Each structure stands twice: as C-alpha cells, then as structure tokens.
Amino acid sequence: MRITKVYTKTGDKGKTRLAGGQPVWKDALRVEAYGTVDELSAVIGVVRAQLLKEQKDTRLAQVECELRWMQNKLFDLGGLLATKPGQSFPNMPSIDAADVTRLEGLIDSWQMDLQPLKEFILPGGGTTASMLHLARTLCRRAERRCVSLLRKEQVDPASIVFLNRLSDTLFVLARWVAHALGEPELLWERTRPT
Questions:
Q1: Helix and strand tally (H, E) in the chain?
Q2: Does the pLDDT value for residue 13 go beyond 80?
C-alpha cells in the first residue's frame, strides 16, 4: 500500500470508507471497533518507546520485540475489522489460535518471575508499568467494542479471543515490568466500615 496524500476531504461530512470502499458513518460500530484497536496500538507504541530508554534489564529488549509483534497483530485485526463481512482480499491478514497460544506462552513465561497476587493491585508500578495498565484498559474497551459489533454483524470469534487474551497479557506484563525495574506494586486497600 502506498499513501501519497494524507488528507482526502472525503471524511469531512462524517463518513469514511471500509477497506472495500463501502461508505459508512464514522461513528459506526465497525469504525468504533477498529478505531479503539488503533488507540491500543498507539499506547503500546508509547510503551515500546519508553522500554527502549530502560537499560536496567536486558530482558526488556525481548519484551519490546513482543510488543512490536502485538502491534503488528493489532494492525492485522484493524484491517479485518475495517473489511465488510464476507469480503476478502489477496494477502488478507488473519488472527488465529496460534496467536492466542503465543500470548498464553508469554503470560506463563512472565508469571514465573512473579509472586501470586493476594489482593487486587492498583494500576501503577512506575511509568512503563502504568502505561501497560492503560494499554490493558484500552484492550478491554476494544474487546467490548468488538462484542458490540458481534451482536449486530459478523466478526471472527478469534478476534474476540485474541483481545481477551491480550488484555491478560498486558496485565501480567505490567506486573513483570514493575518487578524487573524494581518498582513497587500497590495493593488495593479496601475501605473498612467504621
């Protein structure tokens, strides 16, 4: 794909086009779903930039590579969501069980370094971990948008499973990064009745 002009003025009246050229309103469920996936990818990009600044743990370079893979898969997912159900194109990307298995492997690997949780944790644990928690919440929103779309139109169920597992992955990664950088995790302090 080659983009020669950034602005086209075709969206000035509130509509955009899906991958096959079909016009849709910019607030359509499908556009909302792939737009939220794009937001998530952008936040992961910020996390990657932050990780590249960290030199405390060489394992962080591998984490950055995994986050780049996640961004690529999110672009694949965005492309799938931006395509009208029933249409396909040459070299169309996919999300499949192998992608979910890879996420599960990452969760299992990172969790080996962590203590089991005895209480909910507050999002935090330093700048990078906090941004990963933000990415996790955006991932959950993307999942909710895809579920809303699924209730109205066709969506590949693998996309929902991928987003569900990705949010789990981002949660464990936030904890792992806080641990690797020596940042504290803050536990939720329940308000006790007086």
A1: 5, 2
A2: no
Give the side-chain half-sphere CA count within 13 A for 57: 14
User: What does the pLDDT look like over 126-184, one tens digit per residue?
Assistant: 899 999 999 999 999 999 999 999 999 989 999 999 999 999 999 999 999 999 988 88
Q: Residues with Cβ < 8 Å from 20, sequence gap 6 or more? A: 83, 84, 87, 89
Q: Quote the CA–CA distance of 81 and 133 in Å, as a whole number.
A: 24
- Structural tokens at position 60: 């962080």
List, in order of start, the domains of the chain with CATH numbers.
22-83+94-112+119-180 (1.20.1200.10)
Whether the Cβ atoms of residue 9 and residue 3 lie closer than 8 Å to each other? no
Q: What single string gives the DSSP state of each residue in 112-170?
A: TTSPPPSS-B-S-SSHHHHHHHHHHHHHHHHHHHHHHHHTTS---HHHHHHHHHHHHHH
Nearest CA-CA partner of 136 in 125, 149, 148, 152: 125
Which tens digits make up the pLDDT trace of 41-81?
999 999 999 988 876 667 888 899 999 999 999 999 999 99
pTM: 0.90
Q: 59: Cβ–Cβ under 8 A, 6 or more apart, which residues?
A: 180
